Model the fold of this input.
Amino acid sequence: MHYFKNFKKIIIFLFIILIFIPLSLNAESEPYPVSSNMHSVDNPIELVDLLQVHSADPRLITFTLFLSNLEQITSATLFYTLPNPAENQVDSMSDQDGIIQPTSQLSWGDFDSDYAYVVNVDTNKGTADSTFIPVGSLITYYWEFVDSNNFTYQTPSYEFVFLDGQYRWEVINNPSNVQLYYYGNRNTLVNKSYIEATKVIDDIASLIDFNLGFPIRIIYYRSNTDAKFAVPPASSNYSNNTVTEGVRYKTDVVHTYTQRHQVLRHEVAHVITKIAGEGIFTSLPFWVDEGLAVYMSGDNAMYDRIESDIIQNERAFRVSSIQGKPGTPEMVDLFYAQSYSLTKYLIDENGIDKYRDFFSKLKADLGIEEALFSVYGLNQDTLYLDWREFHNMLPIQLDKLSTTTNKLELPDIVPLATPKRLKAQPATKINQNVSTQQNNTLDQRKSSVFSIMRDNILFILAGFIMSFTMYKLIRYLWKD
Done:
Protein backbone atom coordinates (compact mmCIF):
# COMPACT_ATOMS: atom_id res chain seq x y z
CA MET A 1 0.00 0.00 0.00
CA HIS A 2 2.93 2.34 0.83
CA TYR A 3 4.38 1.86 -2.68
CA PHE A 4 1.00 2.47 -4.27
CA LYS A 5 0.68 5.81 -2.49
CA ASN A 6 4.14 6.84 -3.70
CA PHE A 7 3.16 5.82 -7.23
CA LYS A 8 0.05 8.01 -6.98
CA LYS A 9 2.19 10.96 -5.90
CA ILE A 10 4.48 10.47 -8.90
CA ILE A 11 1.50 10.36 -11.27
CA ILE A 12 0.07 13.56 -9.74
CA PHE A 13 3.43 15.33 -10.03
CA LEU A 14 3.86 14.38 -13.68
CA PHE A 15 0.32 15.44 -14.48
CA ILE A 16 0.93 18.87 -12.94
CA ILE A 17 4.15 19.31 -14.88
CA LEU A 18 2.43 18.46 -18.16
CA ILE A 19 -0.20 21.11 -17.49
CA PHE A 20 2.13 23.81 -16.21
CA ILE A 21 4.92 23.72 -18.79
CA PRO A 22 2.83 24.71 -21.88
CA LEU A 23 1.21 27.55 -19.95
CA SER A 24 4.48 28.97 -18.64
CA LEU A 25 6.25 28.79 -21.97
CA ASN A 26 3.20 30.27 -23.72
CA ALA A 27 4.15 28.51 -26.98
CA GLU A 28 6.32 31.45 -28.12
CA SER A 29 9.93 30.48 -27.52
CA GLU A 30 10.36 28.07 -30.42
CA PRO A 31 9.12 28.07 -34.01
CA TYR A 32 6.71 25.35 -35.00
CA PRO A 33 5.70 23.91 -38.38
CA VAL A 34 2.36 25.06 -39.71
CA SER A 35 0.42 24.96 -42.96
CA SER A 36 2.48 26.61 -45.68
CA ASN A 37 -0.48 27.48 -47.91
CA MET A 38 -0.37 31.17 -48.86
CA HIS A 39 -3.01 31.25 -51.58
CA SER A 40 -5.70 28.94 -52.92
CA VAL A 41 -8.53 29.30 -55.49
CA ASP A 42 -11.10 26.64 -56.37
CA ASN A 43 -12.37 26.42 -59.96
CA PRO A 44 -11.07 29.81 -61.17
CA ILE A 45 -11.95 29.04 -64.82
CA GLU A 46 -13.09 26.15 -66.98
CA LEU A 47 -10.72 23.14 -66.92
CA VAL A 48 -8.97 24.31 -63.74
CA ASP A 49 -9.89 22.56 -60.50
CA LEU A 50 -7.55 24.35 -58.14
CA LEU A 51 -4.73 26.90 -57.89
CA GLN A 52 -2.42 26.83 -54.89
CA VAL A 53 0.72 28.59 -53.68
CA HIS A 54 2.88 27.11 -50.92
CA SER A 55 6.16 27.91 -49.20
CA ALA A 56 7.55 25.71 -46.44
CA ASP A 57 10.26 28.28 -45.70
CA PRO A 58 11.53 31.49 -47.37
CA ARG A 59 13.87 29.72 -49.79
CA LEU A 60 11.24 28.41 -52.24
CA ILE A 61 7.71 29.18 -53.46
CA THR A 62 5.73 26.39 -55.14
CA PHE A 63 2.92 27.33 -57.54
CA THR A 64 0.56 24.48 -58.47
CA LEU A 65 -2.07 24.23 -61.22
CA PHE A 66 -4.58 21.35 -60.92
CA LEU A 67 -6.46 20.64 -64.15
CA SER A 68 -9.64 18.61 -64.54
CA ASN A 69 -8.38 16.95 -67.74
CA LEU A 70 -4.61 16.96 -67.82
CA GLU A 71 -4.42 14.77 -70.94
CA GLN A 72 -5.74 17.46 -73.28
CA ILE A 73 -3.29 20.15 -72.05
CA THR A 74 0.04 20.44 -73.86
CA SER A 75 1.77 23.15 -71.79
CA ALA A 76 1.28 25.54 -68.88
CA THR A 77 3.22 28.68 -67.99
CA LEU A 78 3.28 30.77 -64.82
CA PHE A 79 3.63 34.57 -65.05
CA TYR A 80 4.40 36.56 -61.91
CA THR A 81 5.47 40.06 -60.94
CA LEU A 82 6.55 42.04 -57.88
CA PRO A 83 4.78 45.41 -58.03
CA ASN A 84 6.35 48.65 -56.84
CA PRO A 85 3.53 50.83 -55.44
CA ALA A 86 5.73 53.92 -55.11
CA GLU A 87 6.35 54.12 -58.85
CA ASN A 88 3.13 52.48 -60.06
CA GLN A 89 5.08 49.83 -61.95
CA VAL A 90 6.82 46.52 -61.21
CA ASP A 91 10.21 45.92 -59.64
CA SER A 92 10.61 42.66 -61.54
CA MET A 93 8.67 40.05 -63.49
CA SER A 94 9.20 36.57 -64.82
CA ASP A 95 7.60 33.65 -66.62
CA GLN A 96 8.38 29.99 -66.00
CA ASP A 97 7.11 26.81 -67.66
CA GLY A 98 5.25 24.37 -65.45
CA ILE A 99 6.43 20.78 -65.05
CA ILE A 100 3.98 17.88 -64.70
CA GLN A 101 4.42 16.26 -61.30
CA PRO A 102 2.52 13.52 -59.40
CA THR A 103 0.47 15.04 -56.60
CA SER A 104 1.72 12.23 -54.35
CA GLN A 105 5.07 14.04 -54.29
CA LEU A 106 3.51 17.21 -52.90
CA SER A 107 3.99 17.51 -49.16
CA TRP A 108 0.61 19.04 -48.32
CA GLY A 109 -3.03 17.94 -48.55
CA ASP A 110 -4.99 15.30 -50.47
CA PHE A 111 -5.95 16.03 -54.06
CA ASP A 112 -8.52 14.61 -56.46
CA SER A 113 -6.05 14.88 -59.35
CA ASP A 114 -3.14 12.48 -59.69
CA TYR A 115 -0.95 15.00 -61.53
CA ALA A 116 -0.53 18.76 -61.65
CA TYR A 117 1.62 21.43 -63.28
CA VAL A 118 4.17 22.72 -60.77
CA VAL A 119 6.54 25.71 -60.80
CA ASN A 120 9.17 26.07 -58.09
CA VAL A 121 10.42 29.65 -57.75
CA ASP A 122 13.75 29.97 -55.99
CA THR A 123 13.64 32.92 -53.58
CA ASN A 124 16.90 32.59 -51.66
CA LYS A 125 19.35 29.77 -52.35
CA GLY A 126 21.95 31.46 -50.18
CA THR A 127 24.51 31.97 -52.93
CA ALA A 128 25.81 35.16 -54.52
CA ASP A 129 24.02 34.47 -57.81
CA SER A 130 20.72 33.60 -56.11
CA THR A 131 17.39 35.15 -56.96
CA PHE A 132 16.15 36.88 -53.82
CA ILE A 133 12.55 37.71 -52.96
CA PRO A 134 12.14 39.07 -49.41
CA VAL A 135 9.45 37.73 -47.13
CA GLY A 136 6.60 40.22 -47.10
CA SER A 137 6.71 40.89 -50.84
CA LEU A 138 3.39 41.27 -52.62
CA ILE A 139 3.37 38.91 -55.61
CA THR A 140 0.84 38.89 -58.44
CA TYR A 141 0.50 35.90 -60.75
CA TYR A 142 -1.58 34.09 -63.32
CA TRP A 143 -1.33 30.89 -65.37
CA GLU A 144 -1.59 30.35 -69.11
CA PHE A 145 -2.07 26.89 -70.61
CA VAL A 146 -2.58 25.50 -74.10
CA ASP A 147 -4.80 22.55 -75.04
CA SER A 148 -4.33 19.94 -77.78
CA ASN A 149 -6.32 22.12 -80.22
CA ASN A 150 -3.84 24.97 -79.67
CA PHE A 151 -6.37 27.08 -77.77
CA THR A 152 -4.87 29.28 -75.04
CA TYR A 153 -6.52 29.72 -71.66
CA GLN A 154 -5.61 32.27 -69.01
CA THR A 155 -6.63 32.38 -65.37
CA PRO A 156 -7.49 35.65 -63.65
CA SER A 157 -4.61 37.48 -61.98
CA TYR A 158 -4.24 36.97 -58.24
CA GLU A 159 -2.05 38.45 -55.55
CA PHE A 160 -0.74 37.23 -52.22
CA VAL A 161 1.81 38.22 -49.59
CA PHE A 162 4.86 35.95 -49.52
CA LEU A 163 5.30 34.71 -45.93
CA ASP A 164 7.66 32.38 -44.11
CA GLY A 165 5.87 29.03 -43.99
CA GLN A 166 7.61 28.01 -40.76
CA TYR A 167 5.25 30.17 -38.71
CA ARG A 168 1.54 30.85 -38.31
CA TRP A 169 1.31 34.53 -39.17
CA GLU A 170 -1.27 37.01 -37.97
CA VAL A 171 -1.59 40.58 -39.21
CA ILE A 172 -2.46 43.86 -37.50
CA ASN A 173 -4.16 45.83 -40.23
CA ASN A 174 -6.11 48.67 -38.69
CA PRO A 175 -6.91 51.61 -40.99
CA SER A 176 -3.37 52.92 -41.40
CA ASN A 177 -0.34 52.73 -43.66
CA VAL A 178 1.07 49.76 -41.75
CA GLN A 179 0.42 46.02 -41.97
CA LEU A 180 2.40 44.25 -39.26
CA TYR A 181 2.77 40.46 -39.63
CA TYR A 182 3.73 38.53 -36.49
CA TYR A 183 3.61 35.00 -35.10
CA GLY A 184 2.98 33.80 -31.57
CA ASN A 185 0.92 35.82 -29.13
CA ARG A 186 0.05 39.45 -29.74
CA ASN A 187 1.81 40.82 -26.67
CA THR A 188 2.64 44.36 -25.58
CA LEU A 189 5.85 44.43 -27.62
CA VAL A 190 3.99 43.59 -30.83
CA ASN A 191 1.39 46.27 -30.12
CA LYS A 192 4.09 48.80 -29.28
CA SER A 193 5.90 48.07 -32.55
CA TYR A 194 2.73 48.63 -34.55
CA ILE A 195 2.03 51.92 -32.77
CA GLU A 196 5.59 53.19 -33.26
CA ALA A 197 5.62 52.21 -36.94
CA THR A 198 2.48 54.21 -37.61
CA LYS A 199 3.77 57.10 -35.52
CA VAL A 200 7.14 57.39 -37.29
CA ILE A 201 5.36 57.58 -40.64
CA ASP A 202 3.38 60.55 -39.36
CA ASP A 203 6.48 62.12 -37.77
CA ILE A 204 8.70 61.95 -40.84
CA ALA A 205 5.85 62.87 -43.20
CA SER A 206 5.31 66.01 -41.13
CA LEU A 207 9.03 66.81 -41.15
CA ILE A 208 9.55 66.62 -44.91
CA ASP A 209 5.94 67.23 -46.00
CA PHE A 210 5.34 63.84 -47.60
CA ASN A 211 2.23 61.66 -47.89
CA LEU A 212 2.67 57.88 -48.07
CA GLY A 213 0.03 56.55 -50.45
CA PHE A 214 0.33 52.81 -49.82
CA PRO A 215 0.74 50.42 -46.85
CA ILE A 216 4.11 49.22 -45.60
CA ARG A 217 4.30 45.52 -44.73
CA ILE A 218 6.38 44.84 -41.62
CA ILE A 219 7.60 41.29 -41.00
CA TYR A 220 8.10 40.98 -37.25
CA TYR A 221 10.62 38.22 -36.48
CA ARG A 222 11.34 37.62 -32.82
CA SER A 223 15.05 36.97 -33.37
CA ASN A 224 17.77 36.72 -36.00
CA THR A 225 17.73 32.95 -35.53
CA ASP A 226 14.06 32.72 -36.49
CA ALA A 227 14.85 34.67 -39.69
CA LYS A 228 17.94 32.70 -40.74
CA PHE A 229 16.34 31.51 -44.01
CA ALA A 230 14.82 34.92 -44.78
CA VAL A 231 18.00 36.99 -45.22
CA PRO A 232 20.16 37.20 -48.37
CA PRO A 233 23.82 36.20 -48.42
CA ALA A 234 26.36 38.71 -47.13
CA SER A 235 30.12 38.82 -46.73
CA SER A 236 31.27 36.47 -43.96
CA ASN A 237 33.34 39.20 -42.25
CA TYR A 238 30.40 41.58 -42.16
CA SER A 239 27.99 38.88 -40.97
CA ASN A 240 30.31 37.60 -38.24
CA ASN A 241 31.06 41.02 -36.78
CA THR A 242 27.69 42.74 -36.89
CA VAL A 243 24.24 42.12 -35.50
CA THR A 244 21.56 43.08 -38.01
CA GLU A 245 18.46 44.25 -36.19
CA GLY A 246 16.33 45.47 -39.08
CA VAL A 247 16.27 45.84 -42.87
CA ARG A 248 14.30 47.75 -45.49
CA TYR A 249 14.30 45.35 -48.42
CA LYS A 250 11.83 46.82 -50.87
CA THR A 251 9.83 49.99 -51.30
CA ASP A 252 7.09 48.56 -49.10
CA VAL A 253 8.76 45.76 -47.08
CA VAL A 254 10.54 46.08 -43.74
CA HIS A 255 11.95 43.28 -41.56
CA THR A 256 12.70 43.58 -37.86
CA TYR A 257 14.70 40.93 -35.97
CA THR A 258 14.61 42.54 -32.53
CA GLN A 259 11.93 43.67 -30.13
CA ARG A 260 13.34 47.20 -29.88
CA HIS A 261 10.87 49.58 -31.47
CA GLN A 262 13.63 52.12 -32.18
CA VAL A 263 14.99 49.76 -34.82
CA LEU A 264 11.59 49.48 -36.45
CA ARG A 265 11.18 53.27 -36.52
CA HIS A 266 14.60 53.50 -38.17
CA GLU A 267 13.79 51.05 -40.94
CA VAL A 268 10.30 52.43 -41.61
CA ALA A 269 11.90 55.88 -41.92
CA HIS A 270 14.05 54.46 -44.73
CA VAL A 271 10.90 53.70 -46.71
CA ILE A 272 10.01 57.39 -46.65
CA THR A 273 13.54 58.65 -47.35
CA LYS A 274 13.76 56.35 -50.35
CA ILE A 275 10.55 57.65 -51.91
CA ALA A 276 10.74 61.28 -50.81
CA GLY A 277 14.44 61.91 -51.44
CA GLU A 278 15.69 59.79 -54.31
CA GLY A 279 15.26 61.16 -57.81
CA ILE A 280 15.10 59.35 -61.12
CA PHE A 281 18.86 59.50 -61.65
CA THR A 282 20.24 60.13 -58.16
CA SER A 283 20.23 58.25 -54.88
CA LEU A 284 20.67 59.58 -51.36
CA PRO A 285 24.18 59.75 -49.92
CA PHE A 286 24.65 57.43 -46.96
CA TRP A 287 24.90 60.28 -44.45
CA VAL A 288 21.59 61.81 -45.57
CA ASP A 289 19.70 58.51 -45.66
CA GLU A 290 21.02 57.02 -42.43
CA GLY A 291 21.25 60.35 -40.65
CA LEU A 292 17.53 61.05 -40.98
CA ALA A 293 16.60 57.43 -40.14
CA VAL A 294 18.62 57.59 -36.90
CA TYR A 295 17.17 61.04 -36.14
CA MET A 296 13.64 59.59 -36.44
CA SER A 297 14.33 56.42 -34.45
CA GLY A 298 13.36 58.05 -31.16
CA ASP A 299 15.92 56.92 -28.60
CA ASN A 300 19.40 57.96 -29.74
CA ALA A 301 21.31 57.80 -26.44
CA MET A 302 23.89 55.41 -27.88
CA TYR A 303 24.54 57.60 -30.92
CA ASP A 304 24.69 60.70 -28.72
CA ARG A 305 27.51 59.04 -26.76
CA ILE A 306 29.34 58.07 -29.95
CA GLU A 307 28.83 61.57 -31.34
CA SER A 308 30.42 63.01 -28.21
CA ASP A 309 33.38 60.65 -28.56
CA ILE A 310 33.82 61.59 -32.24
CA ILE A 311 33.88 65.30 -31.38
CA GLN A 312 36.10 65.09 -28.30
CA ASN A 313 38.66 62.74 -29.85
CA GLU A 314 38.75 64.24 -33.37
CA ARG A 315 37.49 61.05 -35.04
CA ALA A 316 35.18 62.74 -37.54
CA PHE A 317 34.97 61.71 -41.20
CA ARG A 318 34.94 64.17 -44.03
CA VAL A 319 31.29 64.47 -45.10
CA SER A 320 32.01 63.97 -48.80
CA SER A 321 33.54 60.59 -47.91
CA ILE A 322 30.37 59.28 -46.21
CA GLN A 323 28.58 58.32 -49.41
CA GLY A 324 28.16 54.55 -49.03
CA LYS A 325 28.30 51.79 -46.45
CA PRO A 326 31.52 51.68 -44.42
CA GLY A 327 34.22 49.27 -45.51
CA THR A 328 34.62 47.61 -42.10
CA PRO A 329 32.14 46.65 -39.39
CA GLU A 330 34.15 48.68 -36.87
CA MET A 331 33.26 51.90 -38.70
CA VAL A 332 29.51 51.27 -38.86
CA ASP A 333 28.55 52.94 -35.57
CA LEU A 334 30.86 55.89 -36.29
CA PHE A 335 29.27 56.45 -39.69
CA TYR A 336 25.76 56.24 -38.23
CA ALA A 337 26.58 58.59 -35.35
CA GLN A 338 28.20 61.28 -37.50
CA SER A 339 25.43 61.06 -40.11
CA TYR A 340 22.90 61.53 -37.31
CA SER A 341 24.87 64.49 -35.92
CA LEU A 342 25.00 66.21 -39.32
CA THR A 343 21.25 65.74 -39.81
CA LYS A 344 20.50 67.04 -36.32
CA TYR A 345 22.68 70.09 -37.05
CA LEU A 346 20.84 70.87 -40.32
CA ILE A 347 17.38 70.49 -38.74
CA ASP A 348 17.90 71.96 -35.27
CA GLU A 349 20.16 74.87 -36.22
CA ASN A 350 18.72 75.78 -39.63
CA GLY A 351 15.03 74.91 -39.24
CA ILE A 352 12.56 72.37 -40.55
CA ASP A 353 11.51 74.48 -43.56
CA LYS A 354 15.02 74.51 -45.01
CA TYR A 355 15.47 70.79 -44.44
CA ARG A 356 12.15 70.11 -46.14
CA ASP A 357 13.26 72.24 -49.10
CA PHE A 358 16.60 70.39 -49.14
CA PHE A 359 14.82 67.04 -49.50
CA SER A 360 12.61 68.32 -52.30
CA LYS A 361 15.71 69.46 -54.18
CA LEU A 362 17.22 65.98 -53.86
CA LYS A 363 14.00 64.47 -55.20
CA ALA A 364 14.25 66.83 -58.19
CA ASP A 365 17.63 65.26 -59.12
CA LEU A 366 19.74 68.30 -58.24
CA GLY A 367 22.38 66.11 -56.62
CA ILE A 368 23.75 66.50 -53.12
CA GLU A 369 26.13 69.39 -53.84
CA GLU A 370 23.57 71.45 -55.75
CA ALA A 371 20.81 70.75 -53.23
CA LEU A 372 22.98 71.82 -50.30
CA PHE A 373 24.14 74.98 -52.02
CA SER A 374 20.69 76.05 -53.23
CA VAL A 375 19.19 75.75 -49.73
CA TYR A 376 22.05 76.33 -47.28
CA GLY A 377 24.69 78.03 -49.44
CA LEU A 378 27.06 75.17 -48.59
CA ASN A 379 28.65 72.17 -50.23
CA GLN A 380 29.57 68.99 -48.38
CA ASP A 381 33.03 70.28 -47.41
CA THR A 382 31.85 73.65 -46.13
CA LEU A 383 29.03 71.88 -44.27
CA TYR A 384 31.67 69.70 -42.63
CA LEU A 385 33.70 72.77 -41.59
CA ASP A 386 30.60 74.55 -40.24
CA TRP A 387 29.60 71.44 -38.30
CA ARG A 388 33.10 71.19 -36.80
CA GLU A 389 33.04 74.84 -35.80
CA PHE A 390 29.60 74.45 -34.22
CA HIS A 391 31.00 71.66 -32.01
CA ASN A 392 34.17 73.64 -31.16
CA MET A 393 36.47 71.18 -32.90
CA LEU A 394 39.96 72.17 -34.02
CA PRO A 395 40.18 74.21 -37.25
CA ILE A 396 41.45 72.14 -40.19
CA GLN A 397 42.49 72.65 -43.82
CA LEU A 398 40.83 70.26 -46.26
CA ASP A 399 43.01 68.71 -48.94
CA LYS A 400 41.78 67.25 -52.22
CA LEU A 401 39.47 64.33 -51.49
CA SER A 402 40.95 60.88 -52.07
CA THR A 403 39.37 58.80 -54.81
CA THR A 404 39.25 55.70 -52.61
CA THR A 405 35.85 54.42 -51.69
CA ASN A 406 34.47 53.26 -48.37
CA LYS A 407 31.57 51.36 -49.89
CA LEU A 408 31.08 47.90 -48.47
CA GLU A 409 31.32 45.17 -51.05
CA LEU A 410 28.39 42.79 -50.70
CA PRO A 411 27.39 39.93 -53.00
CA ASP A 412 25.13 41.05 -55.83
CA ILE A 413 21.51 39.93 -55.70
CA VAL A 414 20.37 38.94 -59.17
CA PRO A 415 16.99 40.43 -60.13
CA LEU A 416 14.21 38.21 -61.38
CA ALA A 417 14.41 37.52 -65.10
CA THR A 418 11.67 39.18 -67.14
CA PRO A 419 9.89 37.52 -70.09
CA LYS A 420 12.14 37.27 -73.14
CA ARG A 421 14.99 38.17 -70.73
CA LEU A 422 14.17 41.85 -70.68
CA LYS A 423 15.86 43.02 -67.50
CA ALA A 424 14.04 44.97 -64.78
CA GLN A 425 15.98 46.32 -61.81
CA PRO A 426 14.48 45.49 -58.42
CA ALA A 427 14.37 47.95 -55.55
CA THR A 428 16.37 45.83 -53.11
CA LYS A 429 18.51 48.34 -51.26
CA ILE A 430 19.38 46.91 -47.87
CA ASN A 431 19.50 49.45 -45.06
CA GLN A 432 20.83 47.79 -41.94
CA ASN A 433 20.77 49.12 -38.40
CA VAL A 434 23.73 47.30 -36.87
CA SER A 435 25.97 47.24 -33.86
CA THR A 436 29.60 46.15 -33.94
CA GLN A 437 29.60 45.13 -30.31
CA GLN A 438 29.39 41.34 -30.05
CA ASN A 439 27.96 41.50 -26.52
CA ASN A 440 24.84 43.16 -27.96
CA THR A 441 23.66 39.70 -29.01
CA LEU A 442 23.76 38.48 -25.40
CA ASP A 443 22.08 41.67 -24.16
CA GLN A 444 19.27 41.23 -26.71
CA ARG A 445 18.73 37.63 -25.62
CA LYS A 446 18.57 38.67 -21.96
CA SER A 447 16.15 41.46 -22.82
CA SER A 448 14.03 39.03 -24.82
CA VAL A 449 13.88 36.58 -21.90
CA PHE A 450 12.84 39.27 -19.44
CA SER A 451 10.24 40.68 -21.83
CA ILE A 452 8.73 37.22 -22.42
CA MET A 453 8.53 36.69 -18.64
CA ARG A 454 6.92 40.09 -18.21
CA ASP A 455 4.35 39.61 -20.98
CA ASN A 456 3.49 36.07 -19.90
CA ILE A 457 3.14 36.59 -16.15
CA LEU A 458 -0.62 36.05 -16.33
CA PHE A 459 -0.14 32.71 -18.08
CA ILE A 460 2.42 31.65 -15.47
CA LEU A 461 0.08 32.57 -12.60
CA ALA A 462 -2.76 30.76 -14.34
CA GLY A 463 -0.54 27.70 -14.60
CA PHE A 464 0.22 27.74 -10.86
CA ILE A 465 -3.44 28.17 -9.95
CA MET A 466 -4.57 25.38 -12.27
CA SER A 467 -1.81 23.09 -11.05
CA PHE A 468 -2.71 23.69 -7.39
CA THR A 469 -6.41 23.16 -8.12
CA MET A 470 -5.75 19.92 -10.01
CA TYR A 471 -3.49 18.69 -7.22
CA LYS A 472 -6.20 19.27 -4.57
CA LEU A 473 -8.86 17.67 -6.78
CA ILE A 474 -6.81 14.56 -7.48
CA ARG A 475 -5.86 14.17 -3.80
CA TYR A 476 -9.55 14.36 -2.89
CA LEU A 477 -10.57 11.79 -5.51
CA TRP A 478 -7.70 9.39 -4.76
CA LYS A 479 -7.63 9.57 -0.99
CA ASP A 480 -8.22 6.26 0.79
Confidence is low (pLDDT under 50) at residues 22-34, 402-455. The radius of gyration is 27 Å. The longest helix spans residues 2-25. The longest strand covers residues 73-84.
